[in-house]
TrEMBL record:
Any single GO CC term annotated in Swiss-Prot or TrEMBL for this entry: succinate-CoA ligase complex
Occurrences of domain ATP-citrate synthase citrate-binding (ranges): 114-290
InterPro entries: Citrate-bd (IPR032263), Citrate_synth_N (IPR056749), Succinyl-CoA_synth-like (IPR016102)
Keywords: Acyltransferase, ATP-binding, Cytoplasm, Lipid biosynthesis, Lipid metabolism, Nucleotide-binding, Phosphoprotein, Transferase
Basic and acidic residues: bias regions: 334-343
GO biological process, one term: lipid metabolic process
Protein name: ATP citrate synthase
Positions of region (Disordered): 303-343
EC number: 2.3.3.8
Domain called ATP-citrate synthase ATP-grasp: residue spans: 1-103
């Protein structure tokens, strides 16, 4: 949108300005600018120079992932250079991992009503430099219950469970780590949480819940290696603060990760309770809070979770000795194709409407659309 009148008191700019829509998958050229009469009202001797400036400005806007830019006014100097005198702009925070170097140091405002902790800023900067996800929000820095949860969904479930059990005011932090973070990034994340947890003492002791569901592609052993390094480095502080550590995790290589955690408990003498996928994802919460009997929840056992090769069948018929009876060979069964209804709920062209300001969710869906080369975006509104 361009208006040849600039400065203040220029009236209704929206009605005066000339507009040009540029599709996402198309480039802007000087020819398109001139064909759209975008610069009508501009003296002819300045059109060429201004066209070149606007095309370059548009390319920078796209490359650096701006979402809004307004310049008012633009002037020509005596040596015929174009100079913007005032500018307001917004950038897409979700593109930080792509453009953080070009943006330079930018202090993004903290959420309304609270001051950001230096540790929160540090994790945010760490998150911007990795393709994984690292999030941390301090709710109550004096709280007794601290969490380090893998996965955005799991982090919500753990926080809700703690609140539902009546300990919401004791919940110190909210956050998550996911997307296969490296061992070093996990170490930095864990170190930050543990240092905050040990900063203020509580005579009742503190609770550190290390939770998560069943990971899809995150190597549990790799992330636990970074976590264990942080625990070992801060073991003296953890003991002084009487911190109880409760672990529940599953996913790729979880046996090795939990085994390493058990060895850490033995070598450091820290009170660490360890559970695997046989225990419900949030079962460690009431256990940690003293609301459930620990005898009802056996801990992770290395031997019972070790993979054992199946014995080779004696024959293809899979005969089983049951007295005088011999079972018949297993026969393939026809699948039941009938369903309760025949309505097709979703198709390749299904779209959705997102309620509320869920910009991160929408951004992820649009990124997926781009990678899949979908013709129409998944998000309709």
């Amino acid at each position: 949108m361009f208006c040849h009148e600039g400065g203040v008191d220029v009236g209704d700019v929206d009605s005066k300005a000339v507009k040009l829509s540029v599709p996402v998958d198309e480039e802007l050229s000087e020819e398109k600018l001139k064909a759209a009469n975008l610069l009508k009202g501009v003296p002819a001797e300045r059109v060429e120079k201004l066209s070149s400036f606007l095309v370059a400005l548009f390319n920078v806007y796209r490359k650096l992932n701006f979402t809004y830019m307004e310049i008012n006014p633009i002037v020509f100097t005596s040596d015929r250079n174009v100079v913007p005198l005032d500018l307001a702009a917004k950038i897409d925070e979700t593109a930080a991992f792509l453009n953080s170097t070009q943006w330079g140091h930018i202090d993004l405002p903290a959420p309304f009503g609270r001051k950001e902790f230096p540790e929160e800023e540090y994790i945010r900067e760490l998150d911007s430099k990795t393709g994984a996800s690292l999030k941390l929000t301090i709710l109550n820095h004096s709280g007794r219950i601290w969490t380090m949860v893998a996965g955005g969904g799991a982090s919500v479930v753990y926080a809700d469970t703690i609140s539902d059990l009546g300990f919401g005011k004791e919940l110190a932090n909210y956050g998550e780590y996911s997307g296969a973070p490296s061992t070093e990034h996990t170490f930095e994340y864990a170190k930050t949480i543990i240092s905050l947890m040990c900063r203020e003492r509580d005579p009742r002791g503190k609770i550190f819940i290390i939770g998560g569901g069943i990971a899809n592609f995150t190597d549990v052993a790799a992330t636990f290696t970074g976590l264990i390094k942080a625990i070992v480095n801060y073991q003296d502080d953890l003991k002084k603060n009487h911190v109880q550590i409760w672990v529940r995790r599953a996913g790729p290589n979880y046996q090795e990760g939990l085994r390493l955690m058990r060895e850490t408990a033995a070598s450091t003498g820290l009170p660490i309770r360890i559970y695997g996928p046989e225990t419900h994802v949030t079962a460690i919460v009431p256990l940690a809070l003293g609301l459930a009997d620990i005898k009802d929840f056996p801990e992770f056992d290395d031997e019972s979770h070790a993979a054992k090769p199946l014995s080779r069948p004696k024959s293809s018929s899979m005969d089983v000795d049951d007295g005088d009876k011999v079972s018949e060979p297993l026969q393939p069964q026809k699948a039941d194709h009938e369903a309760d209804h025949e309505v097709e709920n979703f198709s390749a062209s299904t779209r959705c409407v997102v309620y509320g300001l869920q910009h991160r969710a929408v951004q992820g869906m649009l990124d997926f659309d781009f990678m899949c080369k979908r013709e129409k975006p998944s998000v309709a509104a």
